[in-house]
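Design a sequence for this backbone.
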């Protein structure tokens, strides 16, 4: 292949950072260079230009040249179907399975109906458990589910020391998302120590206690908060295990972290790298031996949309790419139809293949920390790690993660961050393609699986269980009960409940939910009225004058399910008024240039009001004209950066749709 040199102008190659600063200052006409910085969540900034950091060594992320584990969720409530899916996933390239039970706060739909050893054996039929990794998402019963998995594998002649299981238990995430745990944390800590003893007795490989940032991210936390809270949770779990006699050398390997990976490519890479730096700093501060942190990442639930879900493929691809580049040890890609229900075989295959292509064809895992040396990545990693460490210290001053949850500090901080991000979405500054930007009102439904779990509850049989202890006697007794025919429901009913804990729950919320709710209202309106809600585009002047703003207005109102009428070059004002009356629309939007508004808008406003328009808006912000236009019937303006949800809410009220139950979401 012939190589061709590109001839750059000599002054381009010779330009320095100082030359750029001088040119930028001239363009800013007196303003400081900081005016070019873009604020990002957590009080951080993105600079317009970074210098390469050739002196930066790569971070110690995932083991060099080793691909990350491809994790697939198993959550179908019918065991035979879950088994078929699992086999297809493993044959299709996955090498790790996440067992998701209905009690998990991360269950999106369905949940495995696994109660007894026979159920687990049916689930694992044809599977080679010793050749794959497992992750457990089981809510309160992570330890009992682990015992169930181990006892089932013993019947398959697979010993516990041949199994690798990560993320067995995380009572903190249950507490965060539900707002309550049915026991005192002192007792839950004893159960964690019992779990460590059981794992040690059985030679189990993997990490036991999971510090999960997803419960905060999906409730609206920014990256600074997510990392700081993960760090505080890791410290809490290590302190818990230390009380149970786990040695300092073993403490780090018993815990793991889980982060959300969003479609913010650089933000996700930086977050994963910052997690490694923070872990190293934590071990150093605690005077613990340096050991790698097992880092799992899952594509963000918060970023996914129900409307135009095909765009979720793009979001999850970017997120998986960034997680891999950032050094995750394992990655789970949520199937693109997850917000709509249980994903079918096609959606699951796309989730697998997304990672397989990144690993096998793009060879992303062949280079350790490929983002090292990038000025943007290096500086922002340091900034994020420093900010997260300060937030971690704030949480520790509140009594650690438990104290900060109980006092409401975490709830307040995360809620504030959520409102800030929700505002960016509502004003179009954080567009969601297919939902808050470029919606497709004619989209077809996508297929999801329909499966209901058995709704007939079992009658639990209570039994005597020993107290938890550092030698694992509680879970050993649970395992024995399971081998004798007990189910998870029996184990849960038999556990002693001594006290409880409450906090303000952080509920999972997707960014697209407010817009999706309006689209649902529009469809309900159409079903009841026979026609969708409409907006009439009163385009003024020639096509060249109104096309851009008419297209903007059409997309704007379509995000709420409003169908546009008009939008053409009218022969006359009478022609426009006639078309408006025929349209049966109550909402009108004037679309043209500021010059045409100055010449025609007042007359058109008066005529439209006389013809029955209930609400008239204008596309654009002609500030000098607004006082006069408002006096003559203009009700509002729409423009890039305005509150889209507020305007759409008002339009629904105009057409007679009550949104009383949507006010908080909007």
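Sequence:
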């Amino acid at each position: 292949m012939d190589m061709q040199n590109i001839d750059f102008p000599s002054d381009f190659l010779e330009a320095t950072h100082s030359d750029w600063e001088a040119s930028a200052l001239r363009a800013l006409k007196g303003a400081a260079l900081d005016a070019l910085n873009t604020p990002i969540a957590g009080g951080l900034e993105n600079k317009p230009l970074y210098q390469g950091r050739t002196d930066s060594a790569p971070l110690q992320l995932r083991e060099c040249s080793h691909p990350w584990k491809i994790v697939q969720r198993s959550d179908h409530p019918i065991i035979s179907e879950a088994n078929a899916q699992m086999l297809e996933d493993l044959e299709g390239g996955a090498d790790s399975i996440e067992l998701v039970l209905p009690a998990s706060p991360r269950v999106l739909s369905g949940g495995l109906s696994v109660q007894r050893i026979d159920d687990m054996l049916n689930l694992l039929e044809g599977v080679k458990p010793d050749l794959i990794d497992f992750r457990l998402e089981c809510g309160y019963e992570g330890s009992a589910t682990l015992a169930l998995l181990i006892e089932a594998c013993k019947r398959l002649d697979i010993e516990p020391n041949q199994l690798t299981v990560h993320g067995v238990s995380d009572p903190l995430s249950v507490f965060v998302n539900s707002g309550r745990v049915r026991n005192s944390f002192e007792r839950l800590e004893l159960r964690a120590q019992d779990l460590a003893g059981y794992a040690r007795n059985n030679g189990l490989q993997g990490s036991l206690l999971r510090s999960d940032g997803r419960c905060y991210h999906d409730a609206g936390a920014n990256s600074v908060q997510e990392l700081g809270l993960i760090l505080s949770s890791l410290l809490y779990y290590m302190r818990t295990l230390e009380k149970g006699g786990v040695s300092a050398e073993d403490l780090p390997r018993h815990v793991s972290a889980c982060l959300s990976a969003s479609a913010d490519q650089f933000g996700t890479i930086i977050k994963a790298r910052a997690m490694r730096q923070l872990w190293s700093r934590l071990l150093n501060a605690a005077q613990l031996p340096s050991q790698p942190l097992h880092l799992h990442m899952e594509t963000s639930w918060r970023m996914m949309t129900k409307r135009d879900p095909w765009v979720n493929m793009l979001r999850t691809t970017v997120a998986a790419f960034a997680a891999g580049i950032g050094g995750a040890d394992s990655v789970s890609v949520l199937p693109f139809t997850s917000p709509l229900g249980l994903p079918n075989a096609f959606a699951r295959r796309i989730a697998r293949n997304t990672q397989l292509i990144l690993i096998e064809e793009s060879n992303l895992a062949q280079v350790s920390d490929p983002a090292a040396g990038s000025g943007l990545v290096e500086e922002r990693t340091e900034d994020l790690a420093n900010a997260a460490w300060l937030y971690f210290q704030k949480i520790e001053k509140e009594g650690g993660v438990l104290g900060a949850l109980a006092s409401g500090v975490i709830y307040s901080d995360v809620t504030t961050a959520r409102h800030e991000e929700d505002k960016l979405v509502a004003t179009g500054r954080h567009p969601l393609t297919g939902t808050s930007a470029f919606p497709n009102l004619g989209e077809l439904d996508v297929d999801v699986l329909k499966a209901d779990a058995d709704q007939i509850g079992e009658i639990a049989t209570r039994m005597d269980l020993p107290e938890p202890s550092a030698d694992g006697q509680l879970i050993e007794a649970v395992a024995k009960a399971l081998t004798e025919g007990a189910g998870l429901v029996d184990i849960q009913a038999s556990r002693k409940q001594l006290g409880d804990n409450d906090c303000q729950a952080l509920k999972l919320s997707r960014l697209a939910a407010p817009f999706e709710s309006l689209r649902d209202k529009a469809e309900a309106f159409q079903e009841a009225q026979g026609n969708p809600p409409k907006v009439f585009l009163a385009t003024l002047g020639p096509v060249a004058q109104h096309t851009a703003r008419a297209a903007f207005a059409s997309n704007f109102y379509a995000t709420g399910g409003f169908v546009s009428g008009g939008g053409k070059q009218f022969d006359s004002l009478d022609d426009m008024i006639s078309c408006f009356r025929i349209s049966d629309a109550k909402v009108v939007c004037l679309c043209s240039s500021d010059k045409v508004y100055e010449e025609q808008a007042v007359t058109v406003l008066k005529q439209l009001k006389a013809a029955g328009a209930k609400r008239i808006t204008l596309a654009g912000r002609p500030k000098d004209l607004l006082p006069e236009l408002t006096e003559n019937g203009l009700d509002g303006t729409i423009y890039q950066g305005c509150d889209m949800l507020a305007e759409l809410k008002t339009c629904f009220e105009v057409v007679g749709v009550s949104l009383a139950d949507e006010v908080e979401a909007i």
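The chain has two domains: 69-431, 513-662.
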